[in-house]
Amino acid sequence: MASSTIHILNGPNLDRLGNREPDVYGTVTLADIEAQARAHAAGQGFEVVFRQTSREGELVEWLHEASDSAGVVLNAAAYTHTSIAIRDAISLIESPVVEVHISNVFAREAFRHHSTLSAVAKGVICGFGAQSYLLAIDAIAATASQAGKRT
Ligand code: CA2
Predict the structure, then answer these.
(1) H or E, element range at 145
(2) What range does the domain containing 142 cover?
(3) For residues 117 and 15, what is the distance between their CA atoms, to the nearest angstrom?
(4) How buried is residue 43: exposed, middle or buried, by Cβ count under 10 Å (0-12/13-18/19+)?
(5) Could you tell me what percent of the chain has a pLDDT over 90?
(6) Known catalytic residue: 25?
């Protein structure tokens, strides 16, 4: 039977969201994002596994664990711009991975314009604040229903 679980994986420093750099990230906390994402996913019949780590290898292991899920919403934070290990893990799993960013990385420093992950992700959503996560959930729901995995 098709999975109805979406894994939402967050990388380094995202646990510090809330009051630093509000011009870039707003004032939302990661706990706020989790609550919004759980409610949004539940409205479409999905359960959520929501995790954050500062360790690259842990993100790799969590991607492996998400292999048979309905999809993965991945904000790899700074690892987005550097990690071949996370890219390889995305390539290895069956589930669609949506790369998300709170900020519009293309309106920021040049080193944020390149992602090692985008080419192997199903798609990329950035610049919509916490709503980037909700749009990614919608994209996974649409992908699952298009593939006939869910009705
Ligand atoms: O915009 C995003 O979601 C990012 O993935 C956030 C990463 C950044 O390295 C990416 O280029 C874009 C940084 C997360 C750091 O989180 C902070 C938390 C508190 C205060 C400042 C940053």
Answers:
(1) helix 131-146
(2) 5-147
(3) 21
(4) exposed
(5) 89
(6) yes
Q: Whose CA is nearest to atom 9 of ligand 1?
A: 78
Looking up residue 36, the CATH number of its domain turns out to be 3.40.50.9100
pTM here?
0.96
Per annotation, catalytic residue among 7, 40, 79, 101:
101
Give the position, in ligand 1's atom list, of the atom nearest the Cα of 15.
Answer: 18
CA-proximal residue: ligand 1, atom 20 (nearest): 20
Q: Atom 7 in ligand 1: which residue has the minimum CA distance?
A: 77
How many domains does the chain fold into?
A: 1
Ligand 1 shell residues, CB under 6 Å: 13-14, 16-17, 20-21, 25, 75, 77-78, 80, 101-103, 105, 112
Per DSSP, helices labelled H in 43-130 are 56-65, 84-92
Q: Is 16 helix (H, G, I), strand (E, B) or coil?
A: helix
Return d(Cα 28, Cα 17) in angstroms, integer.
7
Span 61-86, pLDDT tens digits: 999 999 999 999 999 999 999 999 99
Per-residue tokens: 96: 């669609």
Q: Which residues pair with 5 in a beta bridge?
A: 47
